[in-house]
Amino acid sequence: MNRRTLWFVFAVLFVIAALLDGLLLTPHDLEEKPWLRIPGFFALFGLFGGMLFAVAVKQWLHHLVQRGEGYYDE
Amino acid sequence: MSSISQLPFPFIFIVGALLVALAPRRWQPVVFLLPPVLGLYLWATGRIGETLNAPFAGRVLTIQRYDALAEPFVFIFTLMLVIGGLYAFHVRDKGEKVASMLYGAGAIGTALAGDLLSLYLFWELMAWTSLYLIWAARTPASRNAGMRYIIVHLFGGSLLLAGIWLHYATTGSLAFTAFASATPAAWLILLGFFVNAAAVPLHAWLPDAYPRATITGTVFLGSFTTKAAVYVVARAFAGWEIVLWAGVIMALFGVAYATLENDMRRLLSYHIISQVGYMLAAIGIGTALAVNGAVAHAVANILYKGILLMGAGALIYATGFEKLTELGGLAGRMRGALILYMVGALSIAGFPLFSGYVSKALIVAAADAEHLATVALLLNFAAIGTFLSTGLKLPYYAWLAPRTQPYDSLHPAPATMYAAMALAGAVSVLFGVVPTSFFAILPFADVYPPYGYAKLASTLQLLLATAVAFGMMLPVMAPKPGFSLDFDWFYRGNVAAAFHRLINLVVGLFDRLDKTIEHVIAAVLAFAENPQYRSPTPALQTSLATIFLAFAVLAVALCIVI
């Protein structure tokens, strides 16, 4: 799968996610919380949460705990 | 058949292990499947004895208590013996098969134990038999990891035994029931349970040992020890706040480390910690809905984690490679494994129509019902990382990403490996599509309807947006060769080396002190020697020196007193 196809797939997924938000604008059965009033909250949470994971873990935690493969010399 | 219900249920598997050991080599895989199939039949027909007592040292032990909480664990442990037996059908290592069966007996016995002594015996049976599955890989790394594994588990077992002894000494009871108050005995027992549950920071044995085991052994390892620990915590410590927060920390910690990993089985091992975190968090909430969520998640996790480990195992079997940086380009050649792996991946991510979606919905609903909004939000955040690493990163880099070098040869995985994955996947999908079939095995009547449109919409939004984030961060997400330091650094790394140096220093100090005392005594002996009597016996010489020293000490003491 090349990069352009992948981007296309993800763009379609994001549009679907945004459309799903319409369902949450109607009365629903989820526990009422302040952040649920933010339009597209779960889409934004997933998007920025995913990016935060990628940056925080793969960049910062990586430098903190990552060592060479033979660190313990087994 | 009714007489079989009078037998303790775990004995079926202990006898089964004996039969496997005695069976001719070619019949071992078939004989292995017979006890768990019989077990499932007894479960389905309601012929497992509810309570079985046995006299022991003047007391009555409840070696079997089959109730609503034990039932789902007995069912899933037995089913996993069938699935694991099918997956390991091609394996001809008799010792591994016997150990796997006894390991299952230990897990089932733990779930059925009605008293703390029986619980401890089955607990230790799990520890020793699972050790064999690690050592069965027969590599230097597996030998060392196994040694560390058993030392940690003996430590956990010692905490448990000390807690049991203290509990018995203070209450006079060995009954295994819920702890109402935080006594020292309860704390010791909880710590012992936490070791097996891989609660942070007592968890490092899990990602250290599981990836070193045999491919087939890892499937059993991922199913039994931690889930048996979830059961005992649910039985004894439901509603304890420390369990709730230990669970939340595990859910986040496990998923963060998993995102870093390059080794497939190590990545999935960290996800075991993360998913057990969900279960402990639910147990910590403590309501009937939450405990249902914990039990449902344990059942779902055994199924989907089994599929994930089996999928990774099929790749390792076929290619001989374990690291994501060494894999890729397999989508066309191992499409079946990819499809079955994705069933497990979508389930662990909590996608609708899979068992993980239903069980996570129960847990989040329980947190919402108790107005634990932070807990629900943190668990949703962990779900993002889960999908990112198991649902996207691992399959993308193992199957879909291009590989620079062609594989020398691919060793096709046996059909029974695929059959085992398909069976686990079918049950996982059944529980996801028909939640009532899932709810039927849960201990309490309190459930949450998972297919409300808002729940569906919010879950899909979260996961689809995570997929978009993965696409955007693809260069950052690329696996890199390396090894993540964890809490085992304290007993494997520089701290352990520093500790050894400290021990050597103390030993050296005592050695020098010893030599100094020897010199002093020699000098005193020389001083005490009678110049008129040149050849006293050594005993006489020593006595004289002792008398002289005694006088010297007395004189010093008198000086101090005066």
Are there runs of chain A of 5+ residues with pLDDT below 50, and where? none
Gyration radius of chain B, to the nearest Å? 29 Å
Report the average pLDDT across residues of chain B.
Answer: 92
Helix content of chain B: over 70%
The low-confidence runs of chain B, each spanning 5 or more residues with pLDDT under 50, are none
Helix content of chain A: 55-70%
Biggest sheet features of chain B: 2 strands, antiparallel
H-E order of chain A: HHE
Strand content of chain A: under 5%
Count every beta strand of chain B, where a strand is a DSSP E run of 2 or more residues.
Answer: 3
First-last Cα distance of chain B: 89 Å
Major sheet of chain A: size, sense and barrel closure? none
Features:
heterodimer; A: 74 residues; mainly alpha; B: 562 residues; 3 strands; 3% strand
Task: Give a description of the structure.
The complex is a heterodimer of chains A (74) and B (562). Chain A has 74 residues and is mainly α. In chain A, 65% of the residues lie in helices and 3% in strands. Chain A is built from 2 helices and 1 strand. Chain A has helices at 3-25, 41-65, and one strand spanning 66-67. Chain A is flat, with a radius of gyration of 19 Å. The model of chain A has no long low-confidence stretch (mean pLDDT 77). Chain B has 562 residues and is mainly α. In chain B, 72% of the residues lie in helices and 3% in strands. Chain B has helices at 9-22, 28-44, 70-87, 94-112, 116-135, 140-171, 184-197, 205-209, 215-236, 241-260, 264-285, 288-319, 335-349, 355-369, 373-400, 415-433, 435-439, 453-472, 474-477, 489-492, 494-528, 538-561; strands at 51-56, 59-65, 483-484. In chain B, strands 1-2 form a two-stranded antiparallel ribbon. In chain B, strand 1 (51-56) and strand 2 form a beta hairpin. The longest helix of chain B has 35 residues, at 494-528. The mean pLDDT of chain B is 92.
